[in-house]
Design brief:
heterotrimer; A: 404 residues; alpha+beta; elongated; B: 437 residues; 2 domains; six-stranded mixed beta barrel; 47% helix; transmembrane (chain A)
Chain lengths: 404, 437, 238
């Protein structure tokens, strides 16, 4: 470590080159730490638990021939023909709010009706479901019970039933009821539609995963019998995609004017939902890889230059008894000094950038250890990059000190 | 002299092929990253209605609850209720009124020969086509009478026409929509793709155009399955479709064209009167508020340019900076290594200026090569972007202005970054290196 | 041709001030071949740098070929160097990336001469040093003596007012050194003024006048007979 002072002095004398390389590394530390933090947020969103058997679930939409609507018997027939498809373990009907479908309803839920001025609304997505949905989606019940077949309210458009049973997710339950037992409590949908909570399920991601309350979901035991219906199914093997052609045929039935569409797996819906996030992650990774690569280029270039510039000086040192190892150590140490200076500057720049993002785009503040990690990475990468030219310096012969 | 400098630069570049390649590569990567993200940003942030930005307006009316703000955008509902939309249309104050809403319609041919499909459709008033510059390949929009009387007429897309009418002129033919017979009034070109889709920014600003258009007021006769957003604040129990139409639910996108400032103020006066009149009927419980947004404002209000878009631009500009600083460092290293030659040239009579220019030319040669590489990489990058974002498929394309701008920018950036090393080497003292050979 | 009166030059660092030249005066007449000698550190190199307009000086007056150069700026000095002075260095100082033609071309480029003019001058100069057939060769393909002859061609191509040579044979073996010296003598006999800095008394003897610098001042000068004509004729034939 005794070498540090002379290194600092020599850096100071050559000013512009080291200053620039420090700027470059500092910028890199700032960019890498911020973008890794940003992309780790994206990855966290993508990788968080879904609470669903999403790798086994698929869906299809059915629209009756013009003029016709669904009835309880048509529904029962469809479910039966779905269940007869080889590979389909379970099937269920969902009116709206299929997880990851990006199509559904969100409403305010409260324990008090609309008429009460003290009413506090909690936003949550709601799903219209039959009694088979919880098992088909693979959602696990935590408390209370599942719907019974006879409890599901089937109703004509605009003729909402006066009441219905509901099952809510654990997040919403704790938001609304806190420590209280939610079972058998009344919950108002939009302040007007009273629902009776009969169960609490573990959190699962709703129809719009990017929502701030994607884990707040209400399953309502009621289905509107309109011209359209959505079915979900759970396959008993791991590739729900393979059963889709047969599912399509089963739902098409005998009526050529019936339309089966949007048959797809939940896995594909999920990757579609996160498409932009994946894209962002990949772009960030590519640019960061490019950044590191450019820094390697810079370090290799500048170290080679410094070694060449100081061949004579190295020769003198060698002639005066410096070992090869000491010479290499000198150049590597020079890099360490640069990276340390750059890291300090880079951390300041990273913090400033992060602060800007917090103010401008309401992002989270960059935790310090991301900067530390970026600086460490920078150190390792530059040492590796400087290794080869620094090693080249050890091949300088002592006689170069004297030869012209 | 320029040719001499370029000759020297080329000799120098060839002399250190690896270092030169590294510099070209670094500059190329920086430029490619910038170019890719800026192209993307350019697409996302463009205003397809810029040419009529001063005369086209999205209407916002604050019909929301008395005790809370609308939750999104600028705190005012981004869509209107049916009754308000209808009032604006019927008042006839605005020269053109484009009301629209996205629905899904079952499409069948009258002989049931083709496989039926549910098509992305829109309920629109006839002004929608003119206001958003939609080109027709056959026929035209339906008439004003058809508009007001909600006649069974339809405009379809070129691709739907290909599927159901084998691409021939289908004007006057009939098509079954939700089981009812509609007469084709016109066919619109598939070339019409507004990016961002400023006419409807619900559920993403990059969407394909609809395939079927029917008169907006058809919705008074029956309900269609809504494929857009419906938002409400009021606890209403809508027991019938008519209840729904009369409700406070917002689901209609209303645009008007007001060609002159006079027309605009006349329309504003109309809105003020209308809102006051409605207030007396118990509606519009909040302070009187309406907004006429230009397309540009509308895109901003709806956050079409996302945080990710900005982050990408910052990132790539940062990357570009690093690449340029890197190029400066490498150029500096390279030029200073040639200091003895510079000293000799000084001794032989070169002025500082001529040495400066000589090395600037060398930097520029690297810059031009880097820019060319950058353009190739950017082209690859944009292909990658199109793979990554399916909704940017046909929009992430480099325009000629972006292209030319990028080349100019790239070369300027490298010339500027070459200036510092060139100046350093130009300052070489002539006497310094002559002895120490 | 070259007139220095009371030139002074001091180098300053943070702590010390070193006087390289003090009250230095020298007159060189047109056609003279002057050798400047002196021990290491005496101020020879400083004299060369100042005489060659490579460095400025602190006091005194320097008139070069009728022009007072004492107060010129950098650009004017560059122009004057280019037009009036032909340099010959100990280390030849050819540009290794350029071929012989391009090396001789360097000062001419900065003169701003036309293409035809430059070509004629380069070919003439290379012919004069016996290397006309090797225009396209790179310096590394030549022996040291040949390289120094290219450097002489480069100096002559600009048709300077005088040649300034700095240990021109310092990096050469004795045979090559003799050839180079013969060539310089011949050039001098054709009327070119030459100022040569050297530490070698044998070389200095071949000049028409000898000046010795000690501690930055002219201490002594001697006159020698012109070089033997026969000797350099044989040398050129090699």
């Amino acid at each position: 470590m005794l070498d540090v002072m002379p290194i600092l002095k020599s850096l100071w004398r050559s000013k512009i080159g080291p200053f620039l390389i420090i700027c470059q590394m500092a910028l890199t530390v700032a960019i890498v730490s911020n973008s890794v933090f940003f992309l780790s947020g994206k990855l966290e969103t993508i990788a968080r638990p879904t609470g669903l058997a999403d790798t086994e679930v698929a869906m299809a939409k059915v629209k009756q021939r013009p003029g016709a609507t669904f009835s309880e018997s048509v529904l029962a027939e469809d479910i039966a023909s779905l269940q007869s498809v080889a590979g389909v373990a379970q099937a269920a009907a969902i009116g709206q709010g299929i997880p990851f479908s990006q199509s559904g309803g969100t409403s305010g839920f409260s324990i008090l009706p609309d008429s009460d001025p003290d009413r506090v609304n909690r936003p949550a997505a709601f799903l219209q479901v039959d009694h088979r949905v919880i098992d088909t989606l693979g959602v696990s019940l935590r408390q209370g019970r599942n719907f019974r077949a006879e409890e599901i309210k089937y109703y004509a458009p605009n003729q909402e039933p006066q009441s219905a049973n509901a099952i809510i997710t654990a997040s919403l339950a704790s938001d609304i009821y806190g420590q209280q037992d939610p079972i058998n409590q009344t919950l108002y949908l939009a302040g007007v539609w009273p629902l009776t909570v009969i169960g609490v399920v573990e959190d699962f991601i709703g129809y719009f995963p990017h929502s701030d309350y994607s884990y707040s979901n209400v399953l309502v035991g009621a289905l509107e019998l309109s011209a359209s219906m959505n079915y979900i199914l759970r396959s008993d093997n791991l590739t729900p995609a393979s059963v889709l052609p047969e599912v399509r045929r089963a739902l098409q039935g005998a009526d050529p004017r019936r339309i089966v569409r949007d048959d797809k797996t939940m896995a594909s819906m999920k990757s579609h939902v996160y498409q932009d996030d994946y894209a962002m992650v990949i772009l960030l990774l590519v640019v960061n890889a490019g950044l590191i690569f450019v820094n390697v280029l810079g370090v290799v270039g500048i170290t080679t230059y410094w070694v060449n510039q100081r061949r004579r000086q190295i020769g003198v040192r060698r002639a005066l008894g410096a070992t090869r190892f000491a010479i290499q150590r000198y150049f590597l140490l020079e890099n360490v000094v640069l990276v340390v200076l750059a890291s300090v500057l880079g951390a300041a720049a990273a913090a400033a950038a992060s602060y800007y993002f917090v103010v401008q785009y309401a992002m989270e503040l960059l935790p310090g250890w991301y900067m530390l990690a970026a600086a460490t990475m920078m150190l390792l990468v530059t040492i590796a990059a400087a290794w080869v030219p620094a090693h080249g310096a050890t091949r300088v012969q002592p006689r170069e000190a004297v030869s012209a | 002299m320029w040719r001499y400098y370029i000759h020297l630069a080329w000799i120098s570049v060839k002399k250190t092929p690896v270092l030169s390649m590294l510099m070209v590569l670094a500059i190329g990567m920086g430029i490619a990253a910038c170019l890719t993200t800026l192209t993307l940003f350019n697409v996302v942030s463009s205003n397809p209605l810029a040419h009529k930005n001063e005369t086209t307006f999205a209407v916002q009316l604050d019909t929301w609850a008395s005790d809370e703000d609308y939750w999104g955008a600028n705190g005012v509902p981004v869509q209107t209720t049916f009754q308000d939309a209808k009032a604006i249309y019927e008042a006839g104050v605005a020269e053109q009124v484009a009301l629209s809403s996205r629905v899904g319609l079952t499409v069948e041919d009258s002989s049931y020969a083709k496989t039926p499909e549910v098509s992305d459709s829109r309920l629109v008033t006839r002004d929608f086509f003119r206001l958003f510059d939609i080109p027709f390949i056959y026929g035209s929009a339906w008439s004003t009478e058809a508009d007001t009387n909600a006649e069974r007429q339809t405009v379809i897309s070129e691709s739907l026409n290909n599927r159901f009418f084998d691409g021939v002129n289908s004007v006057g033919q009939s098509l079954l929509l939700e089981g009812e017979s509609f007469t084709v009034a016109g066919v619109v070109s598939d070339s019409w793709l507004m990016t961002p889709s400023v006419y409807d920014l619900n559920m993403g600003a990059f969407k394909w155009p609809s395939h079927v258009y029917i008169p907006f007021f058809s919705v008074e006769q029956r309900a269609y399955s809504n494929w857009g957003n419906m938002e409400g604040w009021k606890s209403e129990s809508n027991r019938s479709h008519q209840d729904f139409l009369a409700s406070e639910v917002v689901w209609v996108q209303a645009w008007v064209e007001l060609a002159t400032p006079e027309q605009k103020s006349e329309f504003e006066q109309y809105l003020v009167n209308y809102i006051q009149e409605q207030k007396q009927r118990g509606r519009f419980q909040r302070p009187l508020k309406y907004l006429l947004n230009t397309p540009e404002q509308w895109l901003a209000i709806n956050d079409v340019v996302t945080r990710d878009n900005y982050v990408l631009v910052y990132l790539s500009v940062g990357f570009m900076l690093v690449c340029l600083v890197n190029a400066i460092v490498l150029l500096l290293a390279k030029f200073l290594r040639k200091s003895p030659e510079a000293g000799l040239r000084r001794a032989l009579g070169a002025t500082r200026m001529s040495l400066f220019v000589q090395h600037l030319v060398e930097a520029s040669v690297i810059g031009v090569l880097g820019s060319m590489l950058g353009l190739v990489l950017a082209w690859l990058g944009l292909m990658g972007v199109r793979v990554l974002y399916s909704n940017y498929e046909n929009v992430a394309v480099m325009g000629i202005y972006t292209f030319v701008g990028a080349v100019v920018f790239a070369v300027m950036a490298t010339v500027i970054s070459g200036a510092l090393p060139a100046w350093q080497v130009a300052r070489t003292q002539p006497a310094r290196y002559l002895k120490a050979q | 041709m070259l007139s220095m009166q009371s030139i002074g030059k001091a180098y300053r660092t943070d702590m010390v001030e070193t006087h390289a030249l003090r009250d230095f005066s020298l007159e060189v007449e047109p056609g003279e071949f002057v050798a400047v000698t002196g021990p290491s550190g005496s101020g020879k190199t400083t004299f060369l740098s100042i005489a060659g307009l490579l460095e400025s000086f602190d006091g005194g007056r320097y008139v070069l070929d009728g022009d007072d150069v004492s107060a010129l700026n950098d650009t004017e000095r560059s122009r004057l160097r280019n037009e009036k002075i032909g340099f010959i260095f100990q280390g030849f100082n050819l540009i290794s990336d350029l071929n012989l033609f391009d090396n001789v071309d360097v000062p001419l480029r900065y003169r701003g001469l036309g293409k035809q003019d430059r070509r004629a001058r380069i070919e003439y100069a290379l012919e004069r040093v016996g290397l006309a057939s090797r225009q396209k060769h790179m310096p590394s393909q030549l022996s040291g003596g040949q390289q120094q002859r290219v450097a002489i061609a480069r100096a002559l191509a600009g048709k300077p007012a005088f040649l300034l040579a700095d240990e021109p044979t310092g990096n050469l073996d004795s045979l090559m050194a003799r050839q180079v010296m013969d060539m310089l003598s011949e050039i001098n006999e054709q009327g070119m003024t030459i100022v040569m800095v050297t530490h070698d008394p044998d070389l200095a003897r071949r000049a028409s006048r000898n000046i010795q610098i000690v501690d930055g001042q002219v201490t002594d000068f001697r006159l020698y007979e012109p070089a033997n004509r026969h000797e350099h004729e044989t040398a050129l034939e090699v």
